[in-house]
Amino acid sequence: MDESIHEKYIEAGKIAGEVLKYCCSLAKPGVKLLDVAEKGEELIRSKGAGLAFPLNIGINSIAAHYTPSHSDEKVFEKGDLAKIDLGAHLDGYIADTARTVEIGTNKHSNLIAASKAALDRAIDTVKAGVDVAKIGKVIEEEIKHRNFSSINNLSGHKMERYHLHVGFNIPNVARFQFGKKLKEDYVIAIEPFATDGGGHVKNSTGGNIYLLEHPEWARYPSEKEFVRKAKKEFTDLPFSERWCTSLIPKERLLFLLSTMSKRRILHAYPQLVEVRNGLVAQTEHTVIVTEDGCEPTTRI
To answer: Is the per-residue pLDDT at 177 higher than 90?
Structure first.
């Protein structure tokens, strides 16, 4: 890997790790989810990085793909299990990291520990030449050993410049035999999800997160205007409804996002919810694969 690129990955990881720690410290009973999301995103920008995706906050059985809307009034409540997942990039070189915090109680520390321990074991497994199926195996074994289930249809992912998900996934269970082997300089995000539920997620309602899917299908002037502005502002990365309030008047925004999603100009990410409404814990780090191991970029 070119040294200048390596430095950007390392610095992006440092920024993401620092901001995640800060956001977790803000998550307390009565605090708005929107405030944590906006403060975290603003801190990423103030440190000179770009936003790789909207800051996600998944409460309890919501595993992924929820970010507050611009008018969101939801607050953290005592006993919530909150997953905070964020990403920063420098010149398109991405760091993706997540942690789970329990709000005001300490009843689910074992579930949080299961996800964290699985991530630690997975990181110890990574090196050039390792089949990603082996990573899924150690993740599932560790979580199962602690009497929880690894969510079988959520996974980590390979990343490239300005692309959050590319190539193949990093499984969280053993039975997926992809036959994909890691190579030196691959950048991957590993994110075990542990649950006391059924070990599977289903699509729910929209999570206020979007991606340009088929921008070439825009036909009407308002759609073309939005696509032009979104490409310039967000490139090929996901974006949130609240980020768009500076692009399109609020009174038109929700209708436009809805119609463009139905026509697949945009991809609207659904919230991913545990099938039995089980609690979900997530821990995530980005690593750079090396010949004999890996270099975590977001572990601070």
So the answer is: no
- Domain span at residue 88 reads 3-200+279-296
Please give the pLDDT value at position 181: 94
Do the Cβ atoms of 241 and 254 come closer than 8 Å?
A: yes
Residues 92, 21 share a domain: yes
157 is catalytic: yes
41, 80, 191, 274: which is the annotated catalytic residue?
191
Catalytic residue among 157, 241, 274, 285: 157
Active-site position among 11, 41, 72, 96:
96
Phi, psi of 40 (to 5 degrees): -65, -45
Task: For residue range 207-264, list pLDDT tens digits in order.
Answer: 999 999 999 999 999 999 999 999 999 999 999 999 999 898 988 999 999 999 999 9
Catalytic entry in 70, 165, 200, 267: 165
- Given a cut of 70, whether residue 59 has pLDDT beyond it is yes
Domain count for the chain: 2
Selecting among 85, 102, 241, 274, the annotated active-site residue is 85
Residue 262 bridge partners (DSSP): none
Q: Given strand 193-195, what is the order of strands in its sheet?
A: 149-150, 193-195, 280-282
- pTM, whole model, 2 decimals? 0.96
Same domain, 91 and 165: yes
DSSP string, 121-150: HHHHH--TT-BHHHHHHHHHHHHHHTT-EE
**Catalytic residue flag (residue 284):** yes
Same-domain pairing of 42 and 100: yes
The whole-number pLDDT of residue 178 equals 67
